[in-house]
Amino acid sequence: MRQVILDTETTGLSWERGNRVVEIGCVEFVERRPTGRTFHRYLNPDCAFEQGAQEVTGLTLEFLADKPRFAEIVDEFLEFIDGAELVIHNAAFDVGFLDNELRLAGTTYGCLADRCRVEDSLLLARQRYPGQRNSLDALCRRLGVDNTHRQLHGALLDAQLLAEVYIGLTSGQEEIGFGSADSAGAGASLVHYDATLPRPRVTVQAAELAAHEARLDALRRKAGQAVWDRAAPAALGDREALPA
215 and 97 in one domain? Predict the structure, then answer.
């Protein structure tokens, strides 16, 4: 499986208001391992930064003046990402900007969805940590990823940090048999079970159920929903409450 962890920097928050991409950073993974291949370009946006955007990136129009325009690197960029799964934090933002750049570059380029599947790591983080802060910096702290060198936003640096965060968010898949045998590592063994055996029934104390429901109610009030609410009713039925 080939994945490209991608990040962009822009002149503002909305491509609809004429903002453009000024930096693209990509890191290639194959079978959840970095290959060492990256794609990194600064771009001349042909427009000014919105107030505050320049301070976030540290980039200036003077620095970007001699950099290529997106149309000049579009073929190289598409060749790098073509056919990969893109992992992007808050994907709607980056995809919207890049699709706009593709439209401006020419009608023959289409959009990212024509070439790639997109995985939004922000949605993954919200599912795993509902009701908590799930910015890249917050996830770095939570998952033990060193981001002390991140003083400003930079597309390649952020893509490299996101790669480590994504592995942390999705860790455990190989351990329970979701990964391929080749990627499990030498000496690794997968768990096998007899699907014809009856499913175990879990028994819990009534007080534990009450505490669980109280915790879910707190999450619903804070985040609007709890992931547990989407569990299949049949799965929820495989539990029995014991008297307190």
Answer: no
What's the pTM value of the predicted model, to 2 decimals? 0.69
Residue 135 is inside which H or E element, if any?
A: none
Looking at 150, 169, 188, the residue that finishes a domain is 169
In a domain, 216, yes or no: yes
**pLDDT at site 211:** 74
Give the domain extent around 215.
Answer: 202-242
The answer to whether 232 touches 193, Cβ cutoff 8 Å, is no
Average pLDDT over the chain, rounded to whole?
A: 82
Q: Which of 169, 192, 226 is the last residue of a domain?
A: 169
Buried-exposed string 122-143: b where 16+ CB fall within 10 A, e elsewhere:
bebbbeebbeeebebeebbebb
Number of domains in the chain: 2
> What residues act catalytically?
153
Q: Which residues contact 168 (CB under 8 A, 6 or more apart)?
A: 139, 143, 144, 145
CA distances from 194 to 9, 189, 191, 198 (A): 50, 16, 10, 9
Q: What is the mean predicted confidence (pLDDT) over 52-71?
A: 93
Q: Which residues fall within 8 angstroms of residue 44, CB to CB, at 6 or more apart?
A: 64, 65, 66, 67, 68, 69
> Do 27 and 138 lie in a common domain?
yes
Kindly state the tokens that stand for 54. Answer: 């320049």
Distance CA 31, CA 113 (A): 21
234, two tokens: 């049949």
Please state, in angstroms and rounded to a whole number, the distance separating the CA atoms of residues 224 and 229. Answer: 11
DSSP conformation class of 1: -
